[in-house]
Design goal:
Helix content is 27%, strand content 30%. Helix 1 runs parallel beside helix 3 (113-119) and helix 1 runs parallel beside helix 9 (311-328). The chain has 331 residues and is of the alpha+beta class. The protein is globular and about 60 Å long. The chain binds flavin-adenine dinucleotide (FAD). Flavin-adenine dinucleotide binds at residues 13-19, 36-39, 44-46, 59-63, 129-130, 158-160, 163, 167, 191, 193, 236, 277, 280-281, 303-304, 309-311, 314.
Length: 331
Amino acid sequence: MTTTENEKSCLVIGAGIAGLVAARTLVEHGFQVMVLDKGRGVGGRMATRRIGSAVFDHGAQFFTARDPRFEELVSEWRAADVAQEWCRGFAGPEGVAHGDGHPRYCGTTGMTAVPKYLAQGLQVLQEQRVTSAEARGDHWRVRTERGTIFTSHALVLSAPVPQSIAILEAGGTALASETRTALEAIRYDPCIVLMILPKESCVPTPGGVQFPGEPITWIGDNRQKGISPEAAVTLHAGPEFSRTHWDSDDHAIVSTLLSAAADWISVPVSEVQIQRWRFAKPTVLYPKPCLALSEPLPLVFAGDAFGEPRVEGAALSGLAATSAILTFLGV
Ligand SMILES: Cc1cc2nc3c(=O)[nH]c(=O)nc-3n(C[C@H](O)[C@H](O)[C@H](O)COP(=O)(O)OP(=O)(O)OC[C@H]3O[C@@H](n4cnc5c(N)ncnc54)[C@H](O)[C@@H]3O)c2cc1C
């Protein structure tokens, strides 16, 4: 499959918020764009899962909007009824909500509502794990695990940075040593997540508790949030717990975390599922909203590790990726 007939063609690796925002804005500027993602659905870490009729957001729980460009996107999503305000602050460990005036938004049917909306009308191919990207002549040659080849003039890599570096390395694409050093300095915390079906949740209004320490950083009630018809609780373990217990047996992890969360979840718990996010939240970031290279061919690294470690930062990075490509191609 090729996209190089059009001089303005771009492959975007990753259908998370950064990749989808970049793809949408490139299409608006007349680009032929193909988005490739290894996952079964779009959204990356904006992830929603069903267990029976219960619905869980198990990656990002909410997003804030501080930059006017992101506020504009959020207004569009709200008008399209895919995003809504959840609240203006969550409870702390003492169980009392602290409003600070800043809206916290969420997807209307779960966080994936937003990426699903962004993907409408785009060429997005799922279950396409990209294994290599090679600059050959005047085009990028991208290969997937299935052996399919895609080509384009420009390339946006929006996967977590270690995965993007591996894709280039496998294609024999060398990076200048200072670029490589800057990218290799980026760090992420892992996060172990439990999706819990309790008899009832005891999470206070408005449905989320933030904890400053370990072993738990967040407990969210997806029913109060308005996305689940029945009790469905999401629990995030802290980075230290997640790192220490990464390879532990699931039963041991569940039992330790449920004991620690006993005040917030009533027993009996009928089911628990576990998700491990290796690259959950960037902790050492690249200081700019993207890293753009014009040689050997237009290439942009984007995502939440560029600028700000959250949904808003990832979306702004997607916008920055588009601006960089427009500049490189003189559009
Ligand atoms: C548990 C957790 C809780 C969080 N809570 C919040 C929160 O409350 N608020 C907030 O603002 N942010 C939160 N975040 C962070 C937020 O989810 C991210 O900042 C944002 O979603 C990142 O978007 P992205 O597009 O940069 O990356 P991603 O969403 O990770 O997208 C990258 C995409 O690349 C794909 N990919 C990777 N490798 C390949 C490959 N080889 N081939 C093809 N595709 C590939 C992946 O499948 C993925 O879809 C949380 C994250 C986690 C994990």
